[in-house]
Specification:
Length: about 300
Amino acid sequence: MDKKPTLVLLAAGMGSRYGGLKQIDPIDGQGHKIIDFSIYDALKAGFGKVVFIIKKENEKDFRELIGDAVAAKTEVEYVFQEQDRIPSWVKIPEGRVKPWGTAHAILCCKDVVKEPFAVINSDDYYGVSAYRTLVDFLAKPEAAAPGLLPFCMVGYQLKNTLTEHGSVARGCCRMNEEGYLTHIEELTKIEKTAEGARYTQDDGASWTEISPDTLVSMNMWGFQPEIFEKLDAAVERFFREEMEKNPLKSECFIPIEVGRMVQAKEASVKVLSSADKWFGVTYKEDKPFVMESIQKLKDQGVYPEKLWS
């Protein structure tokens, strides 16, 4: 790998469950956001550029509250995930407000990302070691077989990714003996229970138990730029076959599309592991725990009081 890899941050979500634009909500007394800690960890691990995928209407806030400080340390690009960035023949459904999903978001950055890259959620804390693991893989990518695009993901145990305050969406993974992904299923409503966890696929009419040790994707991926050609086809298929099933809420999810590539023997996904604990702010009620966790990391010397000074 001649160039340092790029970090792509998914930050165009509306934050509907949280009740606000959580990506710019401070989580410590110095005004840092979760996204600041993610970028700090990534730059220390060896990433060389940061790409924010945002909504155009949030650009001013992002530049002032996040992007300008980061731009003083590394190259920064902004990409806008807008509803009209779709095939010309698609008609936007009346009343559609949601973005088109994470696969569509990543496709939006194909003109500015030409090197190996990682993708993360902007409102999740992944831990220091995960970025080092990604950099190592992207420097020497390994495919499960010749001819496959060599992708990777960092997996976490489901029990370490749940919140006490509502449901979450997770990509549940299965692997072969060599540690490559064989199947991934996107479950959009998983909740913690006294016994472990459960999920529903029919808005709560029925529930199914799921092991808390299940390995899940937290949208922390490592890709080669060749994925954009595959995503072009994936988004095209989504609009032709999937959108009409739920015009106002259906989304093109990256775990599902990567899973399709694996099944079609177009790509392989090496499942990496991180020793660090994941945490995030899905709901407002999660924020005190996140603030406490960040302060503990500062007390342990993992982070300075001011990240960008």
